[in-house]
Amino acid sequence: MDLVVQGARLPDGSGPVDVGIAAGRIAAIAATLPVDARALPADGCLLTPGLVETHVHLDKTCILDRCTASEGSVAEAVRLTAAAKASFTPEDVYARGRRTLERAIGWGTSRMRTHVEVDPGIGLRGFEGVQHLARDYAWAMDVELCVFPQEGLLNNPGTDELLVEGLRRGARVIGAVPYLDSDPRGQIDRIFAIAREWDVDIDMHLDMGDTPDGMQVEYVCRKTEQYGWGGRVAVGHVTQMSLVRPIRFAALAATLARAGVAVTVLPATDLYLMGRTHDHAVPRGVVNAGTLRAAGVTCSIATNNVMNPFTPYGDANLLRMANLYANVCQVARPDELAGCLHMITTDAARLLRAPDYGVRVGMPADLVLLDAPDAASAVAELAQPLWGMKAGRLTFTRPRPTLHPLDGRTGAGLRQQKW
Ligand SMILES: [Zn+2]
Description:
The protein has 419 residues and is of the alpha/beta class.
């Protein structure tokens, strides 16, 4: 063994156990392991596999100093970002993306799918900056790129060729935004055609709107089944689904499950952008993943945007997104709260078809220690990650706060809290 994590609780409720790590992988898990290596005490805290971000835009993060929003609508966010993109360089994309990527690492994320815009306005400058970033931070994060046409495909000549060039240069996923295209179904058809030609997965922005009119989710499910792409298609937002009655919602959940189409909930963006047509009783616009998961749909919770016109907040903390989702969707049962952690770990890894994931013997030692005794508490109390590692090497540590009481004691009681 190179390292033994001592006394950790695991997400399935088992433990405390010792987890032995050798050559970057989990070599043994037992109630007690003989320590012939460096010991890392877990003090009964929750050891989970590294958090998995399925949907984040590194290329357009941290641009609020260049944009002045007044409406807070989707159309305005696209318009302001398109204007800002004109001055993006690969170096600028790298510098801004790095801020958000480093914060994500510090919150325990070690795997990420990042959506990158390509179109004649930005060309491949954003792609190049993010690809460089992915290479430089491979010590802490597995990053995969998803190229997509933010400003439309069929209405934006030249975009198609750039999507294909992105795939040729190593993007592993193709995305879409049908609701911003002059021909939504035409865009969906073309994206499926490219995906089949290049044998890549699909991750679409889908059905973002303030009414249930014009939803495309059933069409995407039909195409997925037609081409045998089940398990390889994800859709993000689907805020329109949050507006339909339970009987229709249940039917859509069954259709998604049968087709093998996964759903990503993006609570921060959906809460910010949706419901702008209401001046009171504003709908939340956040789809309820609990019902979808119960129907057998793979679901993840993700960040989407950080500090830009689509979401003028954020710190790339996935656990905060899980907590926000739980609060907004009124999740209370401990098993459902634990499910919110699954949606940023195991379920998110399944959505990405990530091989070798989990706290099991033989898996890579990509781990994070959360300052909580179990999954439900971690989500409810927004547990802080104490450290994270990739392939058995520590990538960050985050000490607990130390209090400084008046009587001069050191605050050791808080520091040494054991679960
Ligand atoms: Zn997005």
